[in-house]
Structures are given as structure tokens and as C-alpha cells.
Write the C-alpha cells for this entry.
Amino acid sequence: MRYLLSAEGIGKSFFRHEVLKSAALWGEAGRVVTLMGRNGAGKTTLLKIAAGWLRADYGAVHFNGLVYTRPRLARLASAGLFYIPQEQLLSPAFTPAQHIGAISHRFGAEHVASAVETMQIGSVLDRPVRELSGGERMRVSLALGWVRRPRCLIVDEPLARVSPKDVETLSSALRQLALEGVAVVTSGHDARALLALSDTIIWCVAGTTHHIGSPTEALSHTQFVREYLGPGFADVRQGGGSL
Amino acid sequence: MRLALPPNPFRRSLLARATWLWGALHVVGAVGAGAYGQPLVGPVWSSVVGALWIAGFTAFGVHTLARRRGEALFLANLGHSPLRTAALSIAWCLVLETGLQMVLRMPA
């Protein structure tokens, strides 16, 4: 299968501590691919490398038919990628309206109204970002992705530290973007919401990645359930499976 | 020229920060020169070297602040690389420097 985005054979060390070794990640048009794994497993590092925001020690990123041995976010973004990090995409000094204005100035304003409505950010548009809650910030960040309409959207832990209502809004928006053909790559820990949202699960463990398959296959994967999801998911498991 | 420069208000913010840093470095330089009894306006070659150093420090400072405030990542998502924003800071510093040197070297 030919992927829109793929990061292959990725390795990365920080001060001799090997975080990733031969890890892989991909994004498919019209599908939601989710990277799951424990804290410190290297999910964020892998997403940063795939987005061109962090340099890998080895490995390559393929995007839209081109191979990048030294990918840079600015170049990938020009080619149709949009990256929403876990920590901060929005500048605290500016308002959501100013961020949306900058995106629409560059990529067009066709989707601004639907972004504001879908992400329910009308009431916070003119408030400085520093005054917004975590959920509001993530909704605004995703609204920027909505306005941008990238070919590939990478969102790191979109459902972390947000209210259940925001989880619903964000999940629905990610699903909608995938339905419209965007390759959505995401990560996180909110297993129930992510399994409901995703088409493909990749397990990031011990510095490398394993393709688990569809959410149904994930729930029937003995080792994935035992070592990551935990006993709460054992009751829905239907079969066996291991790496 | 949509692609060449970051959009406002991000561009204004970057340039304002570059102006502040450039000004602060000049004030520090002037105070230092005064303390050692050096003339404020030296030969042209030393002004050029000094201007390049100040522009480099300013660009580094602007880049660091932009990264801390999330602006570098946001602008990268718009296709503006950190290198390009650093180049903008340097160019702006050289414009300011040219103006300053013209004022300082004007005959009384």
C-alpha cells in the first residue's frame, strides 16, 4: 500500500539514551491512524520526527511521493502537512482570530465559518490564547487544521486533559476530516475514545512500533491488551494474538 | 510576496522584538564603550563587524523567544522556516543599523 506519509526506520537518541530504534509510522488518506503506548515510549518524538520538527538520527520520511532524509516542517507544511503538537501551537499573546487570520491569509478562508461552528470557538475568538483552557486551546488548534485543510494532519494527544464534551467534539472533527480525505495521524492514552475514532492502531513500545491493525484486531490482540490496555479491556477481547 | 514574509500580527511582533533587542544591545555597547573611554562612532569596518555581531545576536534572541512562545512552530506550519524568520530579523537589524550609522555620521 502506498501511504501519503510514512516515517520508516526511525532512530533517535537523547544523550546516549535510545528513545527510538527502527520505529515506523504512516498516514493514509481518509483514515485515522493512532499511535498508542505508555508515557515515555517515544510517541511524541516519533510524531515530531514525522512532522519534520525534530531531526532523526537515522531513517527517512516520505511525504506525498517525495523522500526527505532531513525533513523540515516548513517544507512539509508547504506540501500539505499540518502539525499540532501536544504542548503549544498557539502563541499566548495573540487571539484565536489572529491565528485563524494568518492561516486563512496563506491558505484561503473557505473553511473558516465551518471551523468556528464545528469546533465551537465563536465565544473565544477574541480572547488572548493565554486565557483559554486546555480544551479550548485544542479546539482552536484543531480549528486551524480545519481551516488549513491539509492533506495530512498530525495531532499529538488531542484528547489529553480535555473534558468529555471536548473529547466528543474533537473526535467528531477528526473523524470528519478523515471522511473528507485527510490523512489523520494521532496519538494518546484515552483508549476507549481513540479506539472508537481510529481505523488503524500502531503500538509504540520499547522504542519501536508494531502494527496492531484495526480497533477490533487491537481488542483481540492478547499482548496489546495485557501489556497496554489493561484488564478493563480484557472482557471485550475475543481472540488471541501476539507480536 | 505572500510567502516571503510571515503574516501580521506575527511579523510586527517579530520585528518589534528584534528592534528591542537590537536597541538593548546598542545601549549595552554604548555604556561599555563609555566605561572604557572608547569613541561611540568608530571606523566604518569596525561598525560593519559590530553590526553583523549585533544582528546575529538579535536573530538568535528573536528565534529563541519565538520558539518559547510557540510562534516558530505556528509559522513553520505556514511554511515559514525558522531560518527565514532569522533572516528577516537580520535584514531588519541591518536596516536599523544603516539608519543609525547615517544619523551618527551626519556632519553636525
Remarks:
- The interface with chain A takes residues 2-3, 6-10, 13, 69-71, 73-82, 84 of chain B (CB under 8 Å).
- Chain B is about 75% helix and 0% strand.
- The first helix of chain B runs from residue 10 to 35.
- The radius of gyration of chain B is 15 Å.
